[in-house]
Amino acid sequence: MTKKYFYIAIASLSLSSCVNDADLDQHDPNVNTEANFWKTDEDGLKGVNAVYAGLITDGTYMRSTPLLLDARADDTHSVSPWGAMFTAGKFTTVISLDDIYGWAFKDYYQGVYRANQVLLNVPNIAFADQELKNRVLGQAHFLRGLYFFHLVNLYGRVPLPLDLELYHGQKTNEEGWQQVIADFQKAEELLPVSYTNLNGLDKGHTGRATKGAAMAYLGKAYLFTKDFSKAKEQFEKVINLGTYSLVSNYSDNFTEANENNSESIFELQFDRNIGGIDLGWGGAPGSSWGKTSARAITYGPPGFGFNDIQPTKALFNEYQQEKTVSGALDPRLGATMFYNHPGETLYGKDFAQNYAGNPAYLNDVFTKKYQNYNNGSVSEYDWRSGINERLMRYADVLMMYAECLNELGSTSQAYDYIQMVRNRVQLPDLRTTKPGMTQAQMREQIAHERFLEFSLEGHRFDDIRRWGWLQDQSKLNWLKSRDSEFNTYSPGREYYPIPLTEIDNNPNNITQNPGW
């Protein structure tokens, strides 16, 4: 089936300037301003497209956000020479240098601002297609919820603007989650299950937020706030849609050739062949911007990328704790990292031969997920990866649902949904290998299963924090034994600091996060 992909038309919406003589205050009809925009169905669609555009800038998923999510967990560590990256993983971010963590903060709020423009202006447009209007508003709620999700999840106590004013007061983390939930609830109400069979300007637009995506993220927000009953309900809705299924090959979730597959609930659309050749570094969008990602070069193995983030040996070892039913290694190991074993190649070169002159590299492990190692690329040094970023996979919904079942006392039922994920990689039936687990034992099992299924996908540290492991001295000691970066963790640093520019410039008495 031919798919029509939606790519982002970046709308630059700004106020025009004026002079004292009102007769000279005229708008250029060739320039979009708030005075001549927000008139038609097309304007509404362009406006929400601009909200999506904020997700592929340097501060968001073009580069910084995956790093901020991955760096602090025990499945990765950083040997980057760039302090902003190196210190992120060691919980020692230098507040006065807002590289990476500050760029993300800024770009999230740019996305929120754009979403607020849509939510405040689109209701006043007399759409020819009312269903399209609902879908535009639903996407704006979903995207604002996603930006707020990252702000609340990464920075804790943040402003929550719902209008276009420049400055807002700081809210509690609990208030933040309430707003995230409210936006995803509204998105679920307004969004379609699919864009395939619609009539309208967005017909067939693969990549737009759907009802399933809103349900899944709403469930995730409930899970993160420990409302397991409501989370369970949301994940059941996703499962009962019958829209999603696990792909047979685990690696298909991280390659360009298998994008927007049956497992993908929400993913960001990157493409080497759309737009210009410049990366979206931030600021005012330009016509030369492309739709490509710098994730691959940031994570890429030495000699092919910068190796700023790489897997830990703890992750490497944990993949080998259990063999498949045929006695083979867990195939997720080979899909996740490059390592020295017979037949291993990277970018067309034999691993052992390529690193033969460097024993440290020869015996190390490097990131394979989201790398262009098998599509003819010789390296990642062009900075322009076209691999889509999968933000929500059906496997995650199944695992989060199993977690809810366990927390609600239905431990026996949790086995079934965990095994769905294990079956794909031919791991033995957990009911046979570990029958009759208690709730506490199942918690540990779920932690292990999530560690292996979602490594280097930005989930692990979120799990560590929400499970309270950083406040459990025995768990913290265990993390330190696996990843020395936890030796410099101190209480409060489970959140990134509020950038000093926000504290200095916002007149609403913004205070720094505890521990910083």
UniProtKB/TrEMBL annotation:
<comment type="similarity">
    <text>Belongs to the SusD family.</text>
</comment>
<dbReference type="InterPro" id="IPR019734">
    <property type="entry name" value="TPR_rpt"/>
</dbReference>
<feature type="repeat" description="TPR">
    <location>
        <begin position="212"/>
        <end position="245"/>
    </location>
</feature>
<dbReference type="Pfam" id="PF07980">
    <property type="entry name" value="SusD_RagB"/>
</dbReference>
<dbReference type="GO" id="GO:0009279">
    <property type="term" value="C:cell outer membrane"/>
</dbReference>
<feature type="domain" description="SusD-like N-terminal">
    <location>
        <begin position="94"/>
        <end position="223"/>
    </location>
</feature>
<feature type="signal peptide">
    <location>
        <begin position="1"/>
        <end position="21"/>
    </location>
</feature>
<dbReference type="InterPro" id="IPR012944">
    <property type="entry name" value="SusD_RagB_dom"/>
</dbReference>
<dbReference type="InterPro" id="IPR033985">
    <property type="entry name" value="SusD-like_N"/>
</dbReference>
<dbReference type="Pfam" id="PF14322">
    <property type="entry name" value="SusD-like_3"/>
</dbReference>
<feature type="domain" description="RagB/SusD">
    <location>
        <begin position="263"/>
        <end position="516"/>
    </location>
</feature>
<keyword id="KW-0802">TPR repeat</keyword>
<keyword id="KW-0472">Membrane</keyword>
<protein>
    <submittedName>
        <fullName>Putative outer membrane starch-binding protein</fullName>
    </submittedName>
</protein>
<keyword id="KW-0998">Cell outer membrane</keyword>
<keyword id="KW-0732">Signal</keyword>
<dbReference type="InterPro" id="IPR011990">
    <property type="entry name" value="TPR-like_helical_dom_sf"/>
</dbReference>
